[in-house]
Amino acid sequence: MSTSTLTFLNQWQTLIGSALGPFLAVMLSVIGYLIKRKIERDRELKEAIRTIDTSIVRTLNDLYSARMNLKDFITRLKGIIDEVKKITDPTVYSLDETNFPYTSLFFDATLPTLQTESNYLHNQIIFFGAGIEKNNAALTNMKESFSTLLRKNELSVVQNQPPLQRKIYIENLKIFIESVESFIDLLKQGCKVSQQIKIYNEKLGRARTKTIKQFEKVGKPYRNREKWAANIDQVNGLIEAEVNEAVKKAEAGLERIRASAIQAVNTG
Q1: Based on the number of CB atoms within 10 Å of its own CB, is 28 exposed (0-12), middle (13-18) or buried (19 or more)?
Q2: Is-above-0.85 flag for pTM?
């Protein structure tokens, strides 16, 4: 091989080396960044799932506590009605009262901003958060309405004879009890939605990619509300058995707690 050929090969090798060096460095840097970003992303997703679980459990506890407090409140109202009915003296008014229970439902406003790669969970959390906001507003209005009912009863003492005053008071209490019972039914539905979010979130925590592929087959539900609803209904149907079982256990536990509380009051 001639000297000129060897010189050419050496120069070519040097040229290739000088070109590949920076290229390989860039490629390694990109690969390193992608690996680092994936690790960070996995950490963010795990933290989001943990935050959702903690927050939903707290909201779920508030929902069950609210239902129990409102049921106890209804029991007290019915007790007042029974006592008023016992009055036979035509000169006796009734001003028996009880307090509306302090009840507030927690919801972490940051949950809709968390990324879990699940369209179902994102949409459920948005709808659920809006529902909790409305329920808190309803509780505030209900408390104000009850205060108004008591003030009207005080005014009725001035405006009406005792038998009529007592009759009006009983009727107003019955109407109010009906509205509270209807609201308790709404809270019960909220408990079920909480369980849906909690159970699906736990599935994501165990196997995120597999769960999304298995349960969410509607495509991209962000395009319109119809696909949002289709996605939510589809997943709810697939996890219904698990949710119903969780709801059943929670309801049984709630009744045990309430029964124990009533027994403690009766024997205290």
Answers
A1: exposed
A2: no
